[in-house]
């Protein structure tokens, strides 16, 4: 700028008005803050169902009185998801009336998270349920035929989530459970077989005072089992396709139900695959406790697929069945196999 011109502008600035000066907008007098309301008056509840952005939350008002409150997620939660099994804090209209709507303002720390992916190459994790302490793997002995690969995947997922596992074999009136019990009995995984109209007393004892989530293929009888355990549940029951051998999805979303004896069961939609993309390949073997000790003999950084892998000798010595090693290697080589 010319020095003379600059001197004129400096001398005459006081003759300018606001129309002659470009004013930048200010930030306002109220500073932004990251602090959020404490919501000290919030009430606690358990999420028992999720449906299209609305949450059904069980709120206990006393030992003998509880109500179901419909709620939406508050904006302050950001991207944090809310799933069945979550313990949450609610504000707003918590009366439970038909037109009432509360807000979920806080999700309490979770004790466990059961995750899966659509397949073994999917990057997006899906949280199945939160805060469950027992995974009940429901497998039919026939119609449809049992798939040990699905059982093994669920055992890996349970171990990753820090949950106990229970194997529930349905339709024992159609086929014997002996073969599967022989495979998984040595792993010390509790197992129970059921038949239509059979006594569920032993199973009830294994579920009492626990938060258990039922997972299995479509058509294995989860809904039938739930209706027997909780008579007023009213879960829809489907049939297995005679051509494909697959069941029809009769449960469209997870639902938590309180057991008469105490405790909860969470029924989940039937799945055709249980992806484990969220679990590193080197950690998959931790879901095979019968192979872990044998893996200590392997060379450093062994992928358990090489000819030098010591697991072949471990199996040959009779420590576990060849089928178990085959299942692990199937996960390692083709974890996207939906039929495994």
Description:
It is a single chain. The chain has helices spanning 3-12, 148-161, 178-184, 201-207, 222-229, 289-295, 311-316, 322-333; strands spanning 43-51, 54-60, 66-73, 87-92, 102-107, 113-116, 126-130, 134-140, 164-170, 191-193, 211-215, 255-258, 264-267. A hairpin with a 2-residue loop joins strand 1 (43-51) and strand 2 (54-60). The protein is globular and about 65 Å long. With 340 residues, the protein is α/β, with parallel strands linked by helices. Helix content is 21%, strand content 22%. The protein has eight helices and 13 strands. The protein starts with a helix and ends in a 7-residue tail after the last helix. The chain has three domains: 43-107, Nucleic acid-binding proteins (OB fold (Dihydrolipoamide Acetyltransferase, E2P)); 113-267, 3-Layer(aba) Sandwich (Rossmann fold); 281-333. The strands form three sheets. It has a six-stranded mixed sheet with strand order 10-9-8-11-13-12. Residues 16-21 and 240-250 have low confidence and may be disordered.
Strand segment count? 13
The share of residues in helices is 10-25%
Choose one word for the global shape. Answer: globular
Mean pLDDT: 85
Unreliable residue runs:
16-21, 240-250
Strand neighbour order, sheet with most strands: 10-9-8-11-13-12
Task: Spell out the blueprint of helices and strands.
Layout lengths: L2 H10 L30 E9 L2 E7 L5 E8 L13 E6 L9 E6 L5 E4 L9 E5 L3 E7 L7 H14 L2 E7 L7 H7 L6 E3 L7 H7 L3 E5 L6 H8 L25 E4 L5 E4 L21 H7 L15 H6 L5 H12 L7
Parallel strand pairs: 3-5, 8-9, 8-11, 9-10, 11-13
Antiparallel strand pairs: 1-2, 1-4, 2-3, 4-5, 6-7, 12-13
